[in-house]
Amino acid sequence: MVGQHGQESILYAYASRFDEIKEKTDPLICLLLKDVDFKKIDNYRYVEYIKYIMVTRIEDGEVENFIISNWESIINALFNCVSDLDDCESILEIFDSYDIDFSSYSRKRANSIIIRSNIERIAEQKTEDAISSEKNHLRSEYDFEGLKDRICVYRSVIFTKFGLEDYGFDEDYYFDGIDEKFFKCNVKNEMKKKESILKLKIDDDKNFTEKDIDDLFYTESKIR
Questions:
Q1: Which of 65, 70, 90 is nearest to 79 (CA)?
Q2: CB-based contacts of 5-8 (< 8 A; 24+ apart in sequence)
Q3: How many domains, the chain?
Q4: Rounded to an integer, what distance in angstroms lies between the CA atom of residue 147 and that of residue 24?
Q5: Looking at the domain assignment, is residue 153 inside a domain?
Q6: What does pLDDT average to over the chain?
Q7: Residue 62, domain member (yes or no)
Q8: Which domain holds residue 25?
């Protein structure tokens, strides 16, 4: 029996040349797929490899018949391998390719649990990344509300696309410690950075005028 890593390498090699040789290799690809323990695959690269094989199969060939007969176990395995939203959308494309209704698949409780756990994992990571990259630029309640709105809309798009409700967005958890004091601290830190830049500009350019200084700090004076 070929090991998991060996299967991955072989699947990749055949996937990359599948258009040329798919008629001759359809039975071999089918044998390789039968040798894969879909409950154990854990590499996101499988999503692309297997997706390619699934969507370029020969109609009514051995690969297609195997995939349709094992649809749920294969799709569930792919969902467990996803690392980002693009991977998830690739799975939706597979459903379109086979003209299989995603909502019928997702209504089954076992499948729904797998979908939700992986979509929530991706949504949580995206939420944390967005907050981490933007929170130090929040200077007012207005900025703060804008960030929350953008995150809510983004999460809604993700969950709606997969027929799910978003139950995991806890504002108190994600935005703990972000308040008026936090905004003022951000403003002070930004001012310090600009002051450092200003000092360098003045040192480099003796013609740097008082008006240039006023222009540089005009935006900050409006915030205060």
A1: 90
A2: 7/32, 7/35, 7/36, 8/43, 8/45, 8/46, 8/49
A3: 2
A4: 54
A5: no
A6: 79
A7: yes
A8: 1-100
